[in-house]
Amino acid sequence: MTTILVTGGTGTLGRLVTERLRADGHEMRVLSRHAQPYAVDLREGGTVLDAAVAGVGTIVHCATTQGGGDEEAAAHLIAAARRAGVGHLVYISIVGVDRVPLGYYETKFAVERLIEESGLGWTVLRTTQFHDLLLRLFDSLAKPPVVLLPAGLKDQPIEAAEVAARLAELASGRPAGRVEDMGGPEVRTFESLARSYLRATGRRRAIVNVPLWGRTYRAFRDGGHLAPAQAVGKGTFEEYLAVRVGGHRRA
To answer: Where's the NAD(P)-binding domain (predicted)?
Structure first.
């Protein structure tokens, strides 16, 4: 079996990818800022990064900061992968990175281009947003007595474990380039998702839809982040909430 390195291997997605690949019999290495023996900040690179990729056949790049530095991190990873002769680099991206002018999306798109031009064998999978992102968002929005939502927005959340299974499948195969996008099972209005969250958590809140403005809002409102033709996910937001929230109701 191929030795596979997962960057961001202690995160929400990376941990699931690592577990899936290890269960499939692969020798695994986990790279993150704090995971020994490969504790590396990819934005800095260094000798530990070279040691982490030495002898690796495939890298699954799940690490991200969202606070900047992802392009620099990818450049360090690509350079180390070249030196080590890594044959396959798999990258997880987001549906709409080429259509929505949001800073984080633009960075993800730039990383895609770095990987495509790296000279390495590569695979890029774009997915819609994970369920847990919506949970964190609604946890924050529901703190006041009124939940303010951006009017006219929809989302298509997907279960992270399903994405992990797809990434593990891709990492076990040959470089495939840009593969088909992966979307959640339903395109839903933000309001319907928020109401499901409120029911699951037992919170009573009024919901107010607030029109916003700007290119980014318009791109989201037009569905640039959605993949309705690739609604291959199975787990719904309500099923996710039943597991994550369950009987732990909030005030």
So the answer is: 8-132
